[in-house]
UniProtKB/TrEMBL annotation:
Keywords: Membrane, Transmembrane, Transmembrane helix. It holds the Pfam family MamF_MmsF. It comes from Paenibacillus lactis 154. It is found in: Membrane. It is a multi-pass membrane protein. One of its GO terms (cellular component) is membrane. Its main location: membrane. This is DUF4870 domain-containing protein.
Length: 112
């Protein structure tokens, strides 16, 4: 467990993991509640953006006949793998940054 506490009173790594455990909702919740921990804010932003992009991709793939079904299944698999990898890294206290989305989250974090 992380010796550092977020402004929510939870250890930073637990708060960051909760951002991913409850996709999008966790990110929104911790963005609203967290006032101090850059680690938690980064993971909240990355969670929100990652799972929003996946949700939009799922919606768009549903509009494509035949190939859309395959794309949707692939997106579901990618979503589960990302979910597990991101939670595992967050609970270990790692600043795991996804390509593109992680960079965007980092830039947004600088503005907060």
């Amino acid at each position: 467990m992380s010796p550092f506490k977020s402004s929510t009173g939870l250890p930073e790594n637990l708060a960051a993991t909760l951002c991913y455990l409850f996709p999008m909702v966790g990110g929104i919740l911790f963005l609203a509640l967290e006032k101090r921990s850059r680690y938690v804010i980064f993971h909240a932003l990355q969670s929100l953006m990652t799972f929003a992009v996946l949700a939009i991709a799922h919606l768009l793939s549903g509009a494509v006949p035949i190939i859309g079904l395959l794309a949707s299944a692939l997106l579901a698999l990618v979503g589960v793998v990302l979910w597990l990898v991101l939670m595992a890294n967050a609970i270990q206290g790692k600043w795991y940054k996804l390509p593109w989305i992680g960079a965007i989250a980092e830039k947004q974090m600088q503005r907060i």
